[in-house]
């Protein structure tokens, strides 16, 4: 029996060989070359995650002082129950929201802040008046049931009631609330600036611990505030002004497009990263990126450019070439209005040219349909063939279509009192946009092109 059992039982040396074999096979899997299609799919997934999902950096670069200052301020509210107000000011894409998110992430690592701090996020583009804003505050604080059908005399009473409702069981201390007002300057356009007045008033008095953080790209935002609102604001401002150099911008492009060390196919990752390095050293690529850097230093526009490049990577062309970047740049800088002109009918294009000539003759003065029609008639009279003989209703329809496309707009609001033919309009296109459209218009008749190119009608 013993002999038969030992005959069937695997020896220890064979087990060790099996284990070493599995280790070898794992190593082989790691060093294995994946099919090119799978590599491209993985590249696109990694890049999409990186460029579209805006992951927060571990530590914000170049704004350490601002990060420390804001964290200290919000900690005083969240942990010590002290009220504060502050504005984060900087151009679009400078990293204002990213800074705030990094600070909140760090702040909420503290147990007390995590347990007590409530957040209310408002946006001036969405909460266009105080009534909508108050409704949103109530919803975010989950106090709809508490408010119920109560009727309040004023905004201040309603807000005071909401903050009172947040008091803890012993009613001695209220939970700290962080109010984040994105597009802060738009709240200054609300009637009497009631929301701002009441929030700053609470933050200045000892009613309840709140912190008001405004995010805006307007440097003159304090000039928009009423005297009574300004007097209640702490005048703390954190400025984020871009100090990015072109060299750092180039490095950022290379980092954004490079693959990580843990990419499954090591050989493919090495080749890809080498090709990205070569790409960034190319003179034509440098010129394209310099143009983007000069027009906008924010990372969002750069990421949009890189996404357009990546969409051109395929199994047949598994690398980004300088031509891809140039094409992506052309799409980014494409003029939307000039592109719209390519889809107009010949009649609509002729009306646009007539308007351009009227603008040249009368130095930008407004025009009406009758004037445009007369200018168009002059063009038709100069041509022997009357292939463009349109009835008045057809011309009016084309004129109205141009207005719907917002290529022309009425000068004032007195449109209802004026006959449509005599309603004054302005052309919303400049000379260069019309010239570009004429050059690229598919099968544009020669006489129309010549009329458009001529100095005056």
UniProtKB/TrEMBL annotation:
Keyword Nucleotidyltransferase among UniProt keywords: no
Signal peptide positions on this chain: none
Its GO biological process annotations read:
cilium assembly; DNA replication initiation
- Provide this UniProt record's keywords sorted from A to Z: ATP-binding, DNA replication, DNA-binding, Nucleotide-binding, Nucleus
Question: Which residues lie in Polar residues bias regions?
Answer: 11-23
The Swiss-Prot or TrEMBL record annotates one GO molecular function as:
ATP binding
Can you tell which superkingdom this protein's organism belongs to? Answer: Eukaryota
- InterPro entries linked: AAA+_ATPase, AAA_16, ORC4, ORC4_C, P-loop_NTPase
Q: Name one GO cellular component term.
A: cytoplasm
Annotated region Disordered: the residues are 1-27
Location within or outside the cell? Nucleus
Indicate the segments forming the AAA+ ATPase domain, all copies: 82-243
Keyword set includes ATP-binding: yes
Name of a matching Pfam family = ORC4_C
Role according to the record: Component of the origin recognition complex (ORC) that binds origins of replication.
- PANTHER family, per the entry: ORIGIN RECOGNITION COMPLEX SUBUNIT 4 (PTHR12087:SF0)
Q: Which family does it belong to?
A: Belongs to the ORC4 family.
Quaternary structure (record)? Component of ORC, a complex composed of at least 6 subunits: ORC1, ORC2, ORC3, ORC4, ORC5 and ORC6. ORC is regulated in a cell-cycle dependent manner. It is sequentially assembled at the exit from anaphase of mitosis and disassembled as cells enter S phase. Interacts with DBF4. Interacts with POLQ.
Protein name in UniProt: Origin recognition complex subunit 4
**What lineage does the source organism belong to?**
Eukaryota, Metazoa, Chordata, Craniata, Vertebrata
